[in-house]
Write a structure and sequence with these properties.
Blueprint lengths: L3 E7 L3 H10 L10 E5 L9 E6 L11 E3 L1 E5 L4 E5 L4 E6 H12 L5 E5 L2 E7 L2 E6 L3 E9 L14 E11 L9 E6 L9 E9 L2 E10 L5 H14 L7 E12 L7 E2 L2 E3 L15 H16 L14 H15 L4 H11 L2 H8 L5 H8 L4 H13 L1
Parallel strand pairs: 1-2, 1-11, 2-8, 5-13, 11-18
Antiparallel strand pairs: 3-7, 4-7, 5-6, 9-10, 10-11, 12-15, 12-16, 13-14, 14-15, 17-18
């Protein structure tokens, strides 16, 4: 195997494979030597991504299920929403991995090695990647690995941690045309806890127990939370657990480096996880598309936000500040968002695609007694 490549992608998760997929859409990259490095072979269904779009996307062929109606529940407000022109979509991890890697098999310029990456660094005009056994170089390295996870544990940061069960019932139980986006009715500690339910048929659904907190729960607490929710709110006494997943997403005020020189950070490592909600999939797609366009135009692939676009970072950090210090207001905030705004505007806002005028209209619907002090702490703290 050669030692130098045009591009090396470190990490074959959502960010790395999304970037590769975007590259494979363009003839520009057919004569570029691309190396993908990951310590795992990506043969398990280890996660699920959900997102919303107004039109078919790059991964439409592997959308496992889609919904155009969403339920929202809290103790103060509950409603069902039609979200047209948006469609809420689910992609399973194993389908995503297989889809991209199988397509990559048809490209002789794409190579994959299963090795653990130790570090990457700039050397003169190129970048070097060191694994346990080898050293590789490239014109550009696109890195999705967080080498120092402790950097994410900055004051005011939270973890979004979740456990999900795919449950199957003996009789038709679910409405597979409606997804539960958030259900805050459970009374648990920590208090920023909710469940979402994603039916994929009339007797099968993913039920996910989700917590925003500084630390993980004990393993058995997730199971207890799922059992109680399924019994109390889904009214199920008989069901079978077909599969389960567990994940942790940083909701961090940490200022992620975009990389420098010939190293470009992508995914969570490059700041593509929305700190206030944990949503990542669509931000990764936008970033990957921008990187590909820059490369094709012989521009730097370091795609930076404009100063104007950084306003969304202020919004996210303000909400994160409230969730961290006030601890029990997630239900109130999201209830107000959905009660006082059209769901399409909320989804657009969560995607960082609203205008300033639209954002101001949303802001005035939120509890000022919470947001003004938190915003001031972010601006001057």
């Amino acid at each position: 195997m050669q030692a130098h490549y045009d591009y090396i992608i470190t990490g074959a998760g959502c960010a790395g494979l999304s970037l590769l997929m975007h590259m494979m859409q363009h003839h520009f990259f057919t004569d570029k030597q691309i190396l993908l490095i990951d310590k795992d072979v990506k043969q398990s269904n280890d996660r699920t991504w959900c997102f919303w779009e107004t039109s078919p996307g790059l991964f439409e062929d592997i959308v496992h299920h889609r919904w155009q109606q969403l339920d929202f529940y809290s103790n103060t407000f509950s409603a069902r929403f039609d979200i047209d022109p948006y469609t809420y979509k689910m992609i399973r991890g194993i389908d995503f991995y297989n889809y991209v890697l199988q397509r990559a098999n048809h490209f002789t310029n794409v190579s994959f090695v299963q090795e653990e990456v130790i570090n990457s660094r700039n050397e003169s005009e190129i970048a070097t990647v060191n694994t346990i056994n080898h050293t590789y170089t490239a014109d550009y390295v696109f890195n999705s690995i967080i080498f120092q996870p402790t950097l994410l544990q900055t004051p005011g940061s939270l973890l979004q941690h979740f456990k999900g069960w795919i449950v199957e019932t003996p009789m038709p139980t679910f409405n597979d045309r409606v997804a539960t986006f958030m259900d805050f009715r459970i009374k648990e500690k920590p208090s920023n806890t909710f469940v979402y339910v994603l039916p994929v048929s009339n007797n099968k659904a993913l039920v996910e127990y989700t917590v925003f907190s500084p630390a993980l729960l004990n393993k058995e607490d997730y199971d207890v939370g799922l059992q109680q929710y399924i019994q109390q709110f889904l009214n199920l006494s008989s069901y079978k657990i077909l599969d389960e997943e567990f994940g942790v997403i940083p909701m961090s005020t940490y200022s992620f480096s975009k990389g420098e020189g010939s190293i470009v950070n992508i995914g969570t490592a490059g700041g593509q996880t929305k700190s206030s909600s944990g949503f990542t999939f669509q931000f990764i797609q936008k970033h990957a598309a921008a990187i590909v366009q820059a490369l094709m135009q012989a521009q730097t692939p370091h795609v930076n936000e404009s100063l104007f676009d950084k306003r969304f970072r202020l919004y996210d950090d303000t909400l994160l500040n409230i969730l961290y210090y006030q601890k029990s207001y997630a239900s109130t905030i999201f209830s107000d968002l959905f009660k006082k705004n059209k769901p399409q505007q909320v989804l657009k806002f969560l995607d960082n695609e609203t205008t300033v005028t639209e954002e101001l209209k949303i802001m005035i619907t939120l509890p000022k007694i919470l947001f003004l002090p938190a915003a001031l702490r972010q601006l001057f703290g």
